[in-house]
Amino acid sequence: MNMEAFILGSGGTMPLPNRHLTSVLLRREGEVFLFDCGEGTQISLRALNLKWKKINAIFISHTHADHITGLPGMLMLSSQVDRQEPLYLIGPPRLREYVEANRNALDMYINYEIRVREIADPSIPGEVFRGEGYSVHSFPVRHSRPCVGYTLREEPRPGLFYPERALAAGVPRGPLWAQLQRGETVSNESGIAVAPESVMGPARKGRKFTFMTDTLPVQSVIPHIADSDLLISEGMFDEEHRESATVKKHMTARDAALLAKRAGGIKQMGLIHYSPRFTNRQLRQLLTEARECFPRTFLTRDQMHIPIPYEEDE
User: Fold this and answer.
1) Superfamily of segment(s) 3-157+204-313
2) DSSP characters for 125-145?
3) pLDDT in tens, 281-313
4) CB 3.0-4.6 Å disulfide test: which of 229, 257, 264, 306 passes with 5?
5) Are the C-beta atoms of 167 and 161 separated by less than 8 Å?
6) CA proximity to 197, closest of 161, 157, 155, 154
7) Is the pTM of this model over 0.85?
């Protein structure tokens, strides 16, 4: 089952000609999720030829303009197709107010169901969305207004099936094998019960994607970001601008790297939400400072594609 992320925008504060505002699309087989929806999101969607009409849910970290101003356009865009499924919008308080105000002011034509789910208390971590084989949780971060990070975690997968064990246990090839792989106990040719664990290996870890932006480097996020196969984290400033980061309640690239190192188990971290003061060339300084603490760091770029394989596929 494929899982992959696409960077639709990597900038913070204001869009630049080659850097749209923060937005990440995550695709898991037939389901598509959007994390934040900054200005310019639609441009990258079109450039990457992504199936935007299949977006199941949009997760908003907070209601600062550079994370949400692309949302009205996305809502109107979704009315251009024959959408049958509801679109879920999930985020902190005032998300509903923002959506309704824009719908009224712009007299939007919406021909599908929008379901807004506000996180009543963003300071409490918890499940905010669930689908077949996965769940999405929010966790609190510390910014100048209520803000959350998100993790999408897959449920453990069944262990590997060993045909030779099934045959040795007297279970013939056929439908009974499928039942064993679904976790069901079956009877062999002699009527003896054969349990799945006798013919299968241990359960295998599912994948974990984490999105975290606009926060001071608080230690409370560590258990939530730990063991991520891909962590997308803000690294808005370099160490030279640490004072600015603290005043504006953001992280430096080094801050993000230290959290990733302390969390443990993170396969790779992509920096995002860069200050517009940095040119693309100057972003190398952010990368250098982050890699001193967490070598598996990379810079995200607009329209970047990031596969998220299972451990055994690496």
Assistant:
1) Ribonuclease Z/Hydroxyacylglutathione hydrolase-like (3.60.15.10)
2) -EEEEEETTEEEEEEE--SSS
3) 999 999 999 999 999 999 999 999 999 999 865
4) 306
5) no
6) 161
7) yes
